[in-house]
Amino acid sequence: TFLRDVDAPGRETGSLFVSGTASILGDDTVHVDDVAQQTEETLRNIEALVGGDNLRRHGVAGAGYDVKDLDQVKVYVRDAEHLPVVRSICESTLPGDADISYLNVAVCRPDLLVEIEGVCR
Questions:
Q1: Catalytic residue chosen out of the listed positions 41, 47, 115, 117
Q2: What are the tens digits of pLDDT across the range 104-118?
Q3: N or C: which end of the chain has fewer CB within 10 A?
Q4: What are 13's strand-pairing partners?
Q5: Could you tell me the pLDDT band of residue 1, with boundaries at 50, 70 and 90?
Q6: What is the dihedral of CA 3, 90, 50, 72, to 10 degrees?
Q7: What residue numbers bound the domain in which 76 lies?
Q8: Is 47 a catalytic residue?
Q9: pLDDT tens-digit profile of 29-86?
């Protein structure tokens, strides 16, 4: 959903918040034990979520976004040794000027190795 500016009710700010996206298709975790594939799948899922076709299906007008519109990104990585691989994939996919934080933390499912969130503008 679009963020609505509380100072200007009814006016959309043009920001779309993407939260807790991971390597999940349907209800299933995919690419178990492969952090590179999970990271790439997560970025593909974000691309599908923010795209115009998906937004229109959910009643949001407009052209949609691209993964290259993602900023203020938080990348949650379960195992510290995976940080270099995840960082490399994210930095080659996300915009060069994106504000990206990498955090070594527990992720929502035991079989997920990475989770990503951010804001499209």
A1: 115
A2: 999 889 999 999 999
A3: N
A4: none
A5: very low
A6: 10
A7: 2-120
A8: no
A9: 999 999 999 999 999 999 999 998 988 888 877 788 999 999 999 999 999 999 999 9
Quote the CA–CA distance of 94 and 96 in Å, as a whole number: 6
What CATH number did the domain enclosing 35 receive? 3.30.1330.40
- The CA distance from 30 to 18, in Å, is 20
CB proximity list for 82: less than 8 A, separation 6 or greater: 35, 113, 114
Give the number of residues written for the chain: 121
- The Cα 52–Cα 56 span in angstroms is 6
Among residues 75, 17, 71, 2, the alpha carbon closest in space to that of 42 is found at 75
Q: Read off the amino acid at residue 81.
A: E
| Beta strand 100-104 pairing with 114-120 | unpaired
